[in-house]
């Protein structure tokens, strides 16, 4: 084999880079699976503890929904959302979502951190003041 | 059949491009389930065809002007940056000779030359800023308001070069540390986007007039320029008014009574 | 062919490492800007574009100027340019890459840059500029690379490439006209609002581009075995001379219009640039340096005897390139913003990190240029020496 040692060195470097994420995490405590909490005072007060759409829908689609909301509010001037149940809501992350889910750290950050996504909502939208 | 390395790379490259192309084509052609979801306008919202404002300088004094500026900047979380280079303002005062350059004359009284005028975005009917924006982040709404979509702005600042009124400010750094008291009902901005007055679109949507109009003791008259029966049209009929740089053809929706 | 860039002399590698160091410094500065925001630059609410957009504007011109070599060669069959047409095309490639990078580093929200494609806006000149620049980049890589490959194999280029070359020739002026439209269509910016802008952009581009190629050719003659040809260099000098005359004339037309009409708004920016207003004189030295350099370069380029002197020519070409850079890369942009819409004067001067970032982008451009030229010259050295065994190729 020509330049055998170069080839082998190349393979080692490639393997090093390819497996870097795994090697990097060795010996580190794993991030605990998220347990988002909905035990805010606002939600406790509700007779029926329900979000504007079903839980499973909100879990998988909230980001699409928020994306649609912002276009609807900012670009079309339509601010009221009618849920599948026919109820009306003001489309506002800051003034609707976060009024109930006032525990951003537990409710938003825990999952987002776990899956390592960093939505930039909070660069502009003001998060509710929390203790601690 | 045997292929050499060159052929292989060509086929692999073409496949990747074709695959990615198909994927995005699918996403465009198959709209999500939200297309069908129902949205409504607030029935209380003020509706107009072309919002405009008359600023009656006879009724304005410095104290009222300060009130207008303060309320606007407070409810919209406009940062108070002292460094002129990075200043952000939606509504502020300029002296006559600077607000209306070319209109002053050498024999004009110092009083008028130095008289402070309230200036803000002119909400032009033919806005150059909208014309130049490469992403439609700034756009004209059906009711004539020149609107900013902060989610979409890429911060190229073409609109700032295009605006002949100096109405636009850029966030040269994170504005949050410069906001004294946050209004929890309204967002702030992030670094790297352009901002300006939006005629309080968020207040119109719930049936309220712009904040500056509300605190102006009647010196600011807000209304629909397209409606001949409106108060603003009556005021425009009864008074001689001027506009800033009307010769540029941007057709400002702000009128001044001197 | 890229493997040819991996074999080089010690000088070649020192140059490459030098460029990488500059790129590194620029990159670190950019990370700083990325974190803090554009506040680290000298730009302000009143002068909201600065060094970055100036470099972009200037380099679009350099990119477009490849046409001054490619057009005579392909359309008029001017054989002397046969050996250097590739040099022009590769300058275009690296310049366009720099243009795109300068736009990118100027963005407040760079991660959203693809919004331009996601929400295409045909009425925005910025959108058009992106389209024409990408197209021009593609055309020059295609034509340059393909023709060079054919030369290496010793076969004439296949006929299918010809239409692309013709399109590239027509495309070149369009990129610079569109860039001028960025400026000249804005109401209320008197220094830019003039129809001569596009013409002046083209003429100054076709003066500075060949000037750069002359400097490069003189360096190549000295340091490599490849000779672009003395006659080709002389022809480029003539091109540069004619367009430099046109540029000066266009500028004087503008001065005449502003001052004979005596419209204040039109006079202010020119007064600011050449004499300063109300004691604000930061750009005055730049404008005068530019003027003096043009004054020295112009006679050298025009007078045949002076032009025929290698040293004088090298100096004149460098002076032209720098003079037009000072005019277009700095003063043009700032002049549009001073005085501001309220007729108040706020000045601009770039900061250190801003300059480092700009240098970094130039470094990337020169790095790409070096690699491409290394490939081209290695190919040409091989071909020429195999065929003739001497420095000059017989056309």
Write the layout of secondary structure elements.
The complex is a heterotrimer of chains A (132), B (258) and C (395).
Chain A lengths: L3 H15 L1 H6 L15 H4 L10 H22 L3 E3 L5 E3 L2 H8 L3 H11 L6 H4 L8
Antiparallel strand pairs in A: 1-2
Chain B lengths: L4 H25 L8 E3 L10 E6 L5 H14 L15 E5 H4 L10 H4 L2 E5 L7 H5 L5 E3 L5 E3 L9 H5 L6 E2 L23 E2 L5 H4 L6 H4 L5 E5 L6 H8 L15 E4 L1
Parallel strand pairs in B: 2-10
Antiparallel strand pairs in B: 2-9, 3-4, 5-6, 7-8
Chain C lengths: L9 H27 L14 H14 L2 H9 L9 H22 L8 H4 L6 H29 L7 H24 L11 H28 L6 H32 L2 H11 L9 H19 L1 H4 L2 H28 L14 H36 L8
Helix pairs in contact in C: 1-14, 2-4, 2-7, 2-8, 2-13, 3-4, 3-7, 4-6, 4-14, 6-7, 6-14, 7-8, 8-9, 8-13, 9-10, 9-11, 10-13, 11-13
Word description of this protein:
The complex is a heterotrimer of chains A (132), B (258) and C (395). Chain A has helices spanning 4-18, 20-25, 41-44, 55-76, 93-100, 104-114, 121-124, and strands at residues 80-82, 88-90. Chain A has 132 residues and is mainly alpha-helical. The model of chain A has no long low-confidence stretch (mean pLDDT 87). Chain B has 258 residues and is an alpha+beta fold. Helices cover 28% and strands 15% of the residues of chain B. In chain B, strands 9-2-10 form a three-stranded mixed sheet. Chain C has helices spanning 10-36, 51-64, 67-75, 85-106, 115-118, 125-153, 161-184, 196-223, 230-261, 264-274, 284-302, 304-307, 310-337, 352-387. By secondary structure, chain C is mainly alpha-helical. Chains in contact: A-B, B-C. The interface between B and C is large, with 48 and 45 residues. Strand 1 (80-82) of chain A pairs antiparallel with strand 1 of chain B, so a sheet runs across the interface.
